[in-house]
């Protein structure tokens, strides 16, 4: 298979899988137990905590392990119930794990304001500044968008948040392993991560919480994770997250350069054979290797079926619900009309993709597009 859907999920790195297999076999103690088996498991968990902390430049005690990025986002947002200032500011292109939760919280008197983005999917910090009210307690803006790859001006947004003494959370799920993350330089108070987006296992994530920020648990019961996430820890999964975080941040600039090279190669060769292609999002300030493109007159879902039949994996921004295809809210927020929205696909390269595979992708896509146009006549 030619896999070009790394923004959806990544394959587990072989070293990560080997570690998980070994730990699941040999480290079977409960990390909360005081005996030797428990202490060994606890050591594994704390080692992973140090690994992810080193990756984003924070103290290990500022890391909480979760069941994934969505849970981490939920933990941040549901804590608004306990805060004095109950107004949240977010953007129109956030993940459903932000926007859907905020809709639910409306029933509990948690209000929110959605600021717009420009045609590139970028938030204007001045719009956030203008949206702040006396009871604003949280700003939540993703570090980079999962559909078009636009990197948001988090440092400038952090200045706005600090000026008004408002907490800043960022969904960093798409970024780890693609761009450097330094939570100190970014100025964020909280940031969410998900292991399966950076060659780790599914079902495990992490939340950075700056020291001194009061939080209450979303899942209650035991006292695991500083009493913020009850339940016996997924030792193997947590170790896999830590290992993956460490692996993907080695030679990060080289990897970024390689992914950018594959992206440039695709755009050049594909555009030569397929004129009038629209590339969405910033040309430069975006996640390396992520391409969001609109092909006029070509249904993205029909193109995906053709490519899937050729054993090629890419994705569309549209969502399917009860058999009805609906346009991507992200692209709509960027001003892309419904027709073009449903003619848009996302290609996201990964560390193992090659120049030869990009050529194969271009050739197969071009052939599929020609077939679709012929059949439409």
TrEMBL record:
Enzyme nomenclature, EC number: 2.8.1.7
Catalytic EC class: transferase
Name assigned to this protein: cysteine desulfurase
Record flagged with keyword Magnesium: no
InterPro entries linked: Aminotrans_V_dom (IPR000192), Aminotrans_V_PyrdxlP_BS (IPR020578), Cysteine_dSase (IPR016454), PyrdxlP-dep_Trfase (IPR015424), PyrdxlP-dep_Trfase_major (IPR015421), PyrdxlP-dep_Trfase_small (IPR015422)
Protein family membership: Belongs to the class-V pyridoxal-phosphate-dependent aminotransferase family. NifS/IscS subfamily.
Listed cofactors: pyridoxal 5'-phosphate
Keywords for this protein: Iron, Iron-sulfur, Metal-binding, Pyridoxal phosphate, Transferase
Domain Aminotransferase class V: residue ranges: 3-361
Keyword Electron transport: no
Entry-linked NCBIfam families: PRK02948.1
MF (Gene Ontology): cysteine desulfurase activity; iron-sulfur cluster binding; metal ion binding
PROSITE patterns according to UniProt: AA_TRANSFER_CLASS_5
């Amino acid at each position: 298979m030619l896999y070009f859907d790394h923004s959806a999920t990544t394959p587990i790195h072989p070293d990560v899988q080997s570690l998980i297999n070994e730990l699941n076999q040999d480290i079977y103690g409960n990390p909360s137990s005081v005996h030797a088996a428990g202490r060994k498991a606890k050591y594994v968990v704390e080692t992973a905590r140090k690994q992810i902390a080193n990756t984003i430049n924070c103290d290990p005690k500022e890391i909480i392990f979760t069941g994934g990025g969505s849970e981490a986002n939920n933990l941040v947002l549901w804590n608004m119930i306990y805060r004095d200032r109950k107004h949240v500011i977010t953007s129109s292109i956030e993940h459903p794990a932000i926007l859907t939760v905020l809709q639910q919280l409306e029933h509990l008197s948690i209000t929110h304001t959605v600021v717009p983005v420009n045609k590139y999917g970028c938030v204007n910090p001045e719009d956030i500044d203008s949206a702040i009210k006396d009871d604003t307690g949280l700003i939540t803006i993703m570090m980079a968008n999962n559909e078009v790859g636009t990197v948001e001006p988090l440092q400038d947004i952090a200045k706005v948040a600090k000026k008004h003494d408002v907490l800043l959370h960022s969904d960093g799920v798409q970024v780890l392993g693609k761009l450097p993350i330094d939570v100190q330089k970014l100025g964020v108070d909280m940031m969410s991560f998900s292991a399966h987006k950076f060659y780790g296992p599914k079902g495990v994530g992490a939340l950075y919480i700056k020291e001194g920020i009061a939080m209450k648990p979303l899942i209650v019961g035991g006292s695991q994770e500083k009493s913020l996430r009850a339940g016996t820890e997924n030792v193997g999964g947590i170790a896999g997250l830590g290992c993956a975080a460490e692996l993907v941040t080695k030679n990060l600039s080289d990897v970024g350069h390689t992914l950018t090279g594959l992206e440039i190669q695709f755009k050049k060769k594909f555009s030569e054979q397929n004129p009038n292609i629209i590339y969405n999002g910033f040309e430069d300030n975006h996640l390396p290797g992520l391409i969001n493109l609109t092909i006029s007159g070509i249904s993205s879902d029909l193109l995906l079926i053709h490519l899937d039949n050729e054993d090629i994996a890419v994705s569309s921004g549209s969502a399917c619900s009860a058999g009805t295809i609906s346009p991507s809210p992200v692209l709509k927020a960027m001003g892309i009309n419904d027709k073009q929205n449903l003619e848009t696909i996302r290609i996201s390269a990964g560390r193992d993709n090659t120049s030869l595979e990009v050529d194969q992708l271009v050739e197969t896509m071009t052939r599929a597009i020609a077939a679709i146009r012929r059949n439409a006549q």
